[in-house]
Amino acid sequence: MSKKAIVVISIIALALFAGCTSKEKAGETAAAPDFTLQDLSGKKVRLADLKGKVVLLEFWATWCPPCRAEIPTIERLHAQYGSKGLTVLAIALDEGGWDEVKAFVTEHKISYTVLKGTDDVSTKYMVRLIPSTFLVDKEGNIKKRYMGGSSSEAVEQDIKALL
Q: What is the mean pLDDT of each run of 10 residues along the chain (163 residues)?
């Protein structure tokens, strides 16, 4: 293996694991940082107001192919578990106009809540790559973190366990 390939693999590995805190590595839970963001209609959504529900937070962007690939899975999870206590919040990190995000959501018939992300919120969650998904339990603690895409079966099993 060439030195260049080793360097590239090392950088990717560091990017994937750098966001883990010592608590996450030990399997402990950490409180999900609270935030208030606007949805597509301009309504403010506050994470703390969702205590008592399991929340799937998806950091994504319209231009991101792996993010686009996860939309059908998230849509299915939202449809299947929304009435059982799951809330899906998709935090768009697009830097372009919000109108582009609205058009994308309409075109792809996304029915779960899409929020306009901020640098502050992505920093609080240590988002280094997208998609990054967090599963928050009913008490407001981060129970799982999936970086760069995830297995829909694993996410579904984790959701079931928390509901």
A: 40 41 50 95 96 96 93 95 96 88 94 95 93 96 86 86 93
Q: Which two tokens stand for residue 98?
A: 């919000």
b/e burial code for range 57-71 (CB count within 10 A of at least 16 → b): bbbbbbebeebeebb
Residue 150: what pLDDT? 67
CB atoms under 10 Å from CB of 4, counted, come to 8
Between CA 163 and CA 159 the distance in angstroms is 6
Other CB atoms within 10 Å distance of the CB of residue 120: 11
Q: Model-level pTM?
A: 0.81
Contact 31, 143 (CB under 8 A): no
Name the residue among 66, 81, 64, 69 with its Cα closest to residue 135: 81
Closest to 112 in 3D by CA, of 39, 43, 163, 51: 39
Q: For residue 110, give the amino acid letter.
A: I
